[in-house]
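May I ask for whichever protein you like with its backbone structure tokens?
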Amino acid sequence: MATEKDIAQFCKQCGNIFEQVSRDVIGQKEVVEGTIIAMIAGGNVLLEGVPGVGKTRLVRTLGRVFDLPFSRIQFTPDLMPADVTGTNIIVKDEEGNSSFKFQPGPIFSNIILADEINRATPKTQSALLEAMQEHTVTVMGVSRKLQEPFFVLATQNPIEQDGTYPLPEAQMDRFMFKLLVPNPSLEELMQIVDMTQKTMEEVAECACTGEELLRMRETANQIPVANEVLRYAMIMTSATHPDSECATEAAKKYVRLGASPRAGQALISAAKVLALIKGRYNVAFSDIEELAFPVLRHRMKLTFEAIAERMSADDIIKMIVDEVKSNPKYKK
């Protein structure tokens, strides 16, 4: 079990992390908190928003704050899998003999910024699947372990924009959170322009090393989850399936395919971190309800009826959460 000293250290480091990130990123409180929760919990994050709202800046800042090696991959339609994972190249020794040598790609880093990830073809997307789930890369039959901690923080333009491809379902499922990055308010816009007129450089300093981040994750993993809360999280996941015993009316009407078991794992892992950030030593029902949106919004396939009625995934998740909260049959 985590000791009071571990928990106090966790809260102190979280405070330092948020403070340093706020030096470079104006506003976007929910997005910043969601990204940091996912990183502590060990998950990957997909940030969706129009160009210019600070997605890439946030990821670069996190690389500085956690003092971790950082690679940026700019996804384009002509990017090939070997450009991501690396490849074997022929090298000659002093005697002129040729041999193969592995040249690591940019995936061999701790924080990977997959910029505009939905501008690359599915063939290139598939190069990330193994790295995101197993934290290994296999090239020419040889598997290589990636260094921990390892995160993929991807940015995505809205699907309606020109030159974008919808991500494969298997890849979407490997993101712990999908966070929507909104346009800044007028006040935030003024602060952004004022700050960037002085300097475009990030000024955030290191607040947590990779080893300390792994210790924070270990502390969060030891937070207890009551059986009732665990069951509630699994019901919330199962309620997104239209053919499940827990199916809600909203899911039956608007959802074609529901969330996978990874969603249940993500809900519990992230809820433990959120509970600690809020100063609690146990996971609450409210943590599950709050995290349902970033965990589920990219894991559901909507029906044509939902699209015709212009229902967003968040609208449907809200209906599912409200139904699960209010219906007595889910409390048994």
